[in-house]
Automatic annotation (TrEMBL):
Signal peptide extent: none
Transmembrane segments: none
Keyword presence, Repeat: no
Pfam families: MarR_2 (PF12802)
HTH marR-type domain: residues covered: 22-80
PANTHER family assigned to the protein according to its UniProt record, in alphabetical order: HTH-TYPE TRANSCRIPTIONAL REGULATOR MJ1563-RELATED
Assigned protein family: Belongs to the GbsR family.
Highest rank taxon of the organism: Bacteria
A single GO molecular function term of this UniProt record: DNA-binding transcription factor activity
Protein name in the entry: HTH-type transcriptional regulator
Length: 178
């Protein structure tokens, strides 16, 4: 596959953004390539298209599979593994949120709960106890909100987000924002 200037710009930018989000640049670029290609690609084609090492592609594909963002598919008459990703942006968003929750949010909630249940908590300054409790409540609330939003159909979610943005602008304009 030869990258067009627009595709190349998107793929390179997605790699840069991936780095800012804590994701390896090549991992993000491969995902962007598969997303825009909209068809299964084998590792050799990905390697040639992006001009990266084959081992880097293999490791990156494994990472994408661990996030459930890429799946292996087999094409009739071809013994090689091919890889594809969803072209549904909402499905991808949900997979990314679920993966980040599993890797980042759930362990944080567990650690905060453990801190609050620890027998030595009473020896900590009151401010420390309060901040840990407030942090736990905040993360649990935001996590519940995210779960509820992700249960909505994409059209309903977009309408909800649109109404929320209008309300926010209204409150900001009226000086009633708290």
């Amino acid at each position: 596959m030869e990258l067009t200037p627009i595709t190349e710009r998107f793929v390179l930018h997605w790699g840069e953004m991936g780095s800012r989000w804590g994701v390896n640049r090549t991992v993000a670029q491969i995902h962007a390539l598969l997303y825009l290609a909209g068809r299964p690609m084998d590792a050799e084609e990905i390697t040639e298209t992006l001009g990266v090492a084959r081992s880097n592609v293999s490791n990156s594909l494994k990472e994408l599979q661990s996030w459930n963002l890429v799946r292996v598919v087999h094409l009739r008459g071809d013994r090689r593994d091919h890889f594809e990703t969803s072209t549904d942006v909402w499905e991808l968003f949900k997979l990314i949120v679920a993966g980040r929750r599993q890797r980042e949010i759930d362990p944080t909630i567990s650690t905060l709960r453990d801190c609050l249940a620890h027998p030595d908590l009473a020896a900590e300054p009151e401010g420390t106890q309060t901040r840990i409790q407030e942090t736990l409540e905040f993360i649990e609330t935001m996590s519940t909100l995210a779960d509820e939003m992700l249960r909505l159909k994409p059209d309903t979610l977009m309408k909800t987000l649109g109404m929320t943005a209008k309300l926010s602008r209204t409150f900001r304009g009226s000086g009633k924002e708290e």
